[in-house]
Here is the input.
Amino acid sequence: MIKKIITCLLLLSGCVYLYGQNSGIDVGCVVSGVITDSNGKPLSHVNVMADSTNIAVVTNDDGYFTLKTPEQPAFITVSHIGYNSRHIPVTAGKTTNLRIRLQSNSILLSDVVVKSGDPKKIFYEALDKIPDNYNNHTDMFKTFYRETVQKRQRYIYIAEAVASLRKTSYHASVKSDRVAIEKGRRLLSPSQRDTLGVKIMGGPTSPIYLDFVKNTDLILNAEDLTHYDFIMEDPVFIAERPHYVIRLDPRYVAPYALYYGTFYIDWETLAFTRAELSLDMRDREKATRMILVSKPAGVRFRPREMSILVNFKYDGQFSRISYVKNVFRFNCDWKKRFFATSFTAVSELAVTDRTEDNITPIKGRDSFYQRDSFYDKVAFFEDPDFWMDYNIIEPTESLEDAITKLKKKNQ
Here is the structure.
């Protein structure tokens, strides 16, 4: 069993490294808007893709997106779990402030057929199909990464970057995958009371180590799977394709913390399309051993939640990773203080473009590694047009407000 380190609690330091910058795309068109359900409720994590390209973004928690492309696409495709996909025509002069509503879909598959299947058998068949369902060559992804830390409800740290991800064949080891930061920035509260914070270990490497299909040590290894019950849930549609939904619940007491997991498996290809994982917190000591590498002296650490969301996107031949999100909630208290302080750390990464041609290897000296601190790799930012040529996950209103406040405090 390999210990699975996801996050690390440390003292924030002021060390800053220089980073390389490459130009973004040659922007010729900007498409923006908000995506809601039929009742007008904003939908987060919706995939928005430009027709006939690999350029894509996801909506933020307010349902808002901005998509930048070299040329005006004829359509954008909008897809989300449990909703009918839509192909929206793009009209010149009417590409911004779009309001797009998605309708929830109904399952047309026979419930009798779906629920009569053995979930454990289907799950293991999906494992056997991994070599067929995931690319057998090297891809270069353009990605956008963001990590934030909140102390109670107040943001004390924000960092984000555009990174290149070189992802090798699923027949190769995750150790052969590489990430290089192209452009990044960060803000940190200058208040001494906010000295204690979180550095999220892994940073932009999250699609390497949280790719549960390629990195089976996360949960899909033979030893771990013996500790779970397999339960069939109601099927759903994702991007107009029917999916099995199989839940994994801890079955036995293990010497380490297990996960509660829900896996979405394509009905036709048996490819894993989505996973929602939540670390079992019933034994806090085991959970702490799983996720905590170190902490400041004199601080008592109490984990409350650690969840992971991983999405893949099917292109008609292979499924490729498209979005990763990690949420970590914990309390810290000092031995001489009566009340504990709650912290929430969130990291998310979206694939915004992909190429298979003329891929240049990322050299070791340019690589970002899992145990590197992202905070230490990027510098304070001020330029309001920092992301002008790049596709990003748009900040929510609350995050925009926090960025403005932290900028003022750091001036």
Q: What stands out?
A: Confidence is low (pLDDT under 50) at residues 1-21. Helices lie at 111-116, 119-128, 130-133, 206-209, 222-225, 284-291, 397-410.
